[in-house]
Amino acid sequence: MAIRHVATLRIEDGIVQVSSGYLGSWLVELEFDSGLKIYKGEILRQLLTLSGLDQDEANRLMSGQGVFDGTHRRDQLRQEELSNPWLSRKRKELLRRQRDEMLEEEAREAGRKFQLDRELKQALTGASMRALLEEQEEVPLPIGSEPTVLEWLYGGEIYRANQPYTPEEVKLLIWERKERERRKLERLRKQMEAAGAIDEARRERIPEDVRTFVWRRDGGKCVMCGRTENLEYDHIIPVSKGGSSTANNVQLLCVECNRRKSDHI
Predict the structure, then answer these.
(1) CB-facing half-sphere around the CA of 192: CA atoms within 13 A
(2) What is the pTM of this model?
(3) Distance of alpha carbon 172 from alpha carbon 182, whole angstroms
(4) Digit-coded pLDDT (tens) for 6-32
(5) What is the distance between the alpha carbons of residues 143 and 150, in angstroms, rounded to a whole number?
(6) What are the tens digits of pLDDT across the range 197-237?
(7) DSSP characters over 66-134
(8) What's the angle, vertex CA 258, arms to CA 254 and CA 262, rounded to 5?
(9) Nearest to 137 by CA among 112, 164, 157, 121
(10) 3: left (phi over 0), alpha (psi -120 to 50) or beta
(11) What pLDDT score does 148 carry?
């Protein structure tokens, strides 16, 4: 397959969500058959640069996504102090000072994260990003971090190509993919409706006198191919479309011809 759908991307109220097309859940990363991984952070960073931010500014805003958390280390320091009652006063004081310093660092990081998150949200909801999201509704945009672009964002969907393409080629391939899927669904819909019509016709019993008349009239053979085996009474106009069970609307068809007719209704 030249191109396939791998995920859906949504940006709502400054929050980026990446939903796998296969797993149906919100993921942090998408892994492809080749073993390549594309991370949500990379998608976000690429969107920021495509919207007009330079790489350094995009990286600065993204740096708030991984914030220092010293909880585990502070617990270790506290456990050391409590489990060793023979520690010197100097050592205990050092442990308390380290915990206090870590708390201060966490407070600074929390303030930094809050500021970066606010700036990031502004970038994701600003005019440049809105223009970018409008553009990708019309033109496929490259995303990911490979030197040769294989991932594309188009219409809020993420696609992966099996080789490099131009945006115009990607658009054509996606159109072909959707058109093929549309035709398949349309064919299945007709088959389902035809099957339902056949079942409905079978449920409505054709009167015995009509069956006898039609058998004699059609010579006991399929009116389309002349076969004399595996015959069925067929409603020319399906019951589901208003057809009646009178002799004028009933004919003999073999199973194969009846199925072919149903496929074209």
Answers:
(1) 6
(2) 0.51
(3) 15
(4) 777 777 666 666 665 443 333 344 444
(5) 8
(6) 656 655 567 888 999 999 999 999 999 999 999 899 998 88
(7) S----HHHHHHHHHHHHH-TT--HHHHHHHHHHHHHHHHHHHHHHHHHHHHHHHHHHHHHSHHHHHHHH
(8) 175
(9) 157
(10) beta
(11) 62
Residue 76 in tokens: 């270790």
Question: Where does residue 155 fall: left (phi above 0), alpha (psi -120 to 50 degrees), or beta otherwise?
Answer: left
CATH number for the segment(s) 178-263:
1.10.30
Tens-digit pLDDT profile for residues 147-178: 566 788 899 888 888 888 899 999 999 999 88
Domain range summary for the chain, segments of one domain joined by +: 1-165, 178-263
The single residue listed with the structure tokens 């990031």 is 120
